[in-house]
Amino acid sequence: MLLDSDTQLNQNSYYEASVSRPSAAPPLAGAIQADVVVVGAGFSGLSAAIELAERGYSVAVLEADRVCAGASGRNGGQAIVGFASGQSPFEQQLGPQAARSAFDMSLEGIELIDQRIARHNIACDRVSGYLYVADSLRKAKALEAEMKGMASYGIKTDLTTGQDVARHIQSDAYCAAAYESVSGHLHPLKYGLGLARAAQALGVQIFEHSAVIGLDRGATLVARTAKGQVHARFGVLAGNCMLGEYGPKVAPDVNSRIMPVGTYIVGTSPLDAALCQQLIPSGAAVCDNNFVLDYFRFSADHRMLFGGRVSYSTRTPADLENTMRARLGRIFPQLGRVGVDYLWGGFVDISMNRAPDFGRLGDNLYYLQGFSGHGVALTGLAGKLVAESIAGQAERFDVFAALKHRDFPGGALLRTPSLVLGMLYHRIRDAL
């Protein structure tokens, strides 16, 4: 069900339409040896592969579909400092010193994007600047508190309210806005394909259409596909919520700690550049602070890429284009009737507390999941941390591995209905 929906949701993607993919890498055939096998050729898997190859490890990456065909190549393109959970899980579970270390590493995740763009010559429409917005007085107070929290971690923001909001965004929908220059946005598929080229240039073997259907654990790991095997000393599971769709028994230990959430984006027809400049003068990416949030930005060719309307049921919402158009028109009435050229979506993984879930299964199998909507930046950091840990420097990885995570309630049968009810509750709260 999830796999069928995911395939359908990528049929009309602006990102896919605006790149030229190379020919597909051949699927794995036969048995090969590697120091590390990475399952999943998204941002986290490719990042781990690059970091490991630079340290001299031989790496094989197994991808069930195409490189960045999942969340890495479909997301809103927003590279955000910090965590979807905020700092509370880190502060409460690990204390102030570890919380500061985790936040500083999230800043490193942003820096890592720019380093890789420069080092590997990746053209991906990178823009700095991020705008947090609130659409009610209650949400404005929450935004102010959030910005104070970010200031305590060294992130300066320009918080505006009332008429001053127009300095940042020309919309009557918002009563408060805060701008910061550390976060930003990019074309995620261009970036992901650039990471794949960089990995291959370093000697990483990437096998597409090579779903891992079984994984034998032990001193030597054996990752099995339909037509081949990889024998490796170490493994990295970077398939997120799609991992169990191909091999339900590959990582049942951790699959229950994340949940697939559908998110959807429309891409309008190209707009006048002056209008784009008028509506968001800084060119920043924008996101509100509702639980059921809207997020949007302008593309390099002046399209509005507008996302939101999440689904916890794995079913695509009915009349999606008109629903998204109405949401866009509420924020920018000028755009309520513009043409929509693209409509796509996909599933991201969330954890119960919205904090990233990184850890080990035994001594030599690592997993990276629970990015919860902050994956553009955090996945790169995750890949670097897991490579450090495999190379024997685990201190930074263990900051995240020390976080405790809970399974979603209800088990495999009831957790989706439970979350649908929870989502209804939060929609009602957002409307108040």
Write the layout of secondary structure elements.
Layout: H1 2-9, H2 14-17, E1 30-39, H3 43-54, E2 59-62, E3 78-79, H4 88-94, H5 96-120, E4 127-134, H6 137-152, E5 158-161, E6 176-185, H7 188-201, E7 205-207, E8 214-216, E9 221-224, E10 228-237, H8 243-246, H9 252-255, E11 258-268, H10 273-279, E12 285-288, E13 295-298, E14 304-311, H11 320-331, E15 340-351, E16 357-361, E17 365-369, H12 375-390, H13 395-401, H14 411-431
Radius of gyration: 21 Å
Unreliable spans:
420-429
Alpha-beta classification: alpha/beta
- Shape assignment: globular
Q: What do the pLDDT scores average to?
A: 93
Please report the total strand number as a whole number. Answer: 17
- Percentage beta strand: 15-25%
Number of helices: 14
Largest sheet: 9 strands, mixed
Q: How would you sum up this structure, described in words?
A:
The chain has helices at residues 2-9, 14-17, 43-54, 88-94, 96-120, 137-152, 188-201, 243-246, 252-255, 273-279, 320-331, 375-390, 395-401, 411-431, and strands spanning 30-39, 59-62, 78-79, 127-134, 158-161, 176-185, 205-207, 214-216, 221-224, 228-237, 258-268, 285-288, 295-298, 304-311, 340-351, 357-361, 365-369. It is an alpha/beta fold. Helix 12 packs across helix 13 (395-401). It is globular. The relative contact order is 0.20.
